[in-house]
Structures are given as C-alpha cells and as structure tokens.
Amino acid sequence: MSIPSSYIGRFAPTPSGYLHFGSLIAALASYLDARAVGGRWLLRMEDLDPPREMAGAQAAILQALEAYGFEWDGQMVRQSERLDVYNSVIDRLLRDGHAYACTCSRKQLEPFNGLYPGFCREAGRAPSGAAIRVRVPDREYGFCDRTQGEYHQRLTREVGDFVIRRRDGLIAYQLAVVLDDAWQGITDIVRGADLLDSTPRQLYLQELVGLARPRYLHVPLIIQPNGHKLGKRYRSPPLQPAEATPLLLRALRALGQTTPCELEDALPTEVLTWAISSWDAKRIPQCRTLPEAQLR
Fold it and tell me: What are the start-end ranges of the E strands in 193-258?
C-alpha cells in the first residue's frame, strides 16, 4: 500500500511497570514503520490509572527507550494532563443521549461474561458517582489490518454498551486513546495484537465524535512457555541496557526481518539505522501470537 509522507506514528506505554521484550517489539515496529517513510514518531504516556502506576516506571520507560536508541519527535505527552478534554467529550455524549450513567456492580455483571446486558440503558440515572457507558448501535464495525487482514465485530453481540468513564472517575482507555490519536494527528497505529478486538469500539467512537480513521497494524504477541503473553501482569523481565543490541535483533526477527551477522557487534543506534533502511512491514508474521521459544 502507498503510505504518504505525512505519516505520524506513536508509541504509548502504560507506566504500570517497566518495558519488556513484548513492549520492545511494539515500540520497534511503530518506530521503523514511521522512520522508514520519513514520518514522525511521537511518545505518549498513558498514565490514566494512578492506583496501578508503578513508582519510577515513567522515568524507567524513558531511560530504556533512550538506551535502545529510540528518538521521538517533540515533547512527550501525558494523558493525565488532558483530563478536562476527556470529560468535556463525555459531558457532550451524555447531553446528546449517546452515553448514560450506569450503577451496575461487578457482581451483577459476572453472569454475562463481559457482554453488558443493558440494565441501566433506559434508567435515567444521575452521572454523579456512576460509571458512564456509551450506547452502541446494532451494526458491524470492521477494518483491514495491514498484517492481520480483515477484522469485524458486531458491538451489540460481542461487547455491548462499554464504559468510557469508570465509577471512580478514571477515564477508560477506549475513549482516551481515540481522542489523543486524533489530537496528535496520528495517521498509523502500530501496536500489539492484544488490542485488535478493541479497534471496532474505537472505530465507533471515532465515528460518534467525528474523527478521522487511522490505518492499523497489529503485531503478534510473544507467548511464554507457560502460555501467558509477555507483559507486566506476568512479571516479564524488564529491558536491560546491556542487552540492547541482542534484544533489538531478536525483536527484528520476531517481526520477520532478516538481520545480517555483522550487526551482532553493532551499537543500538547502528542496528536501528540498518533496520530503518531495510524495513518491510509485509514480512511481519500474519498471526496473532508467536511462541517465545521460536525467537531464541
């Protein structure tokens, strides 16, 4: 496909822990996809959940990115600085009848396996002290992912009305990411395949708020021998500066890129320079998961 020179990509880590090898793959794919066409690469800290934020994680994330040779354009943005924007959009959706207050407890919703049954949809509850859900239409939302191909979801049957602000006042990821990507002018979103099923909800929010639809590329997740994906929840080992070159090369192989032997003794910046000039997104494996053992 033809990618315009106005390409703007981004990496948006959550400071609930340190970057790990799975984070590196997502960061590397988004970085190379932008730089290979002379595009911009922005950094956004998705710090919307203070109770889950790990002390020192933001600084550690920035240090890891620098140690691995990444350079971002402009100043890093923190979502915690944009709360007024999110809440003003939520207020508008409430006024227009596209969202409503929900007081259902987790215990009430347990039997429905994540599909909201609509108990509060027409209840007319007050927003104060309640979660806010957005009404979803009985329509299918789909897109063509650059790696995963066609993906479709009927929100009413597979998701139901979903939360955009929690009862404790914290803004939900689905809304914040849509508003921030549009505000930053993101043209291409490159991220892990664990977010593939979030995309139809985001497409609907883009339509509801009147925002442009970016292109998407979801890279495979790395699965550990115990069956869990690499992630902070499962205490995956954090990136170490001393391992930058071998881990960058390993991440490139996970993304389907063939690396020359001479790069094994290169500096991280030299690896990235080579990778930018050789990047081919069409080589990314067309699967949602990759066994970690295959990458050693």
Answer: 215-219, 221-223
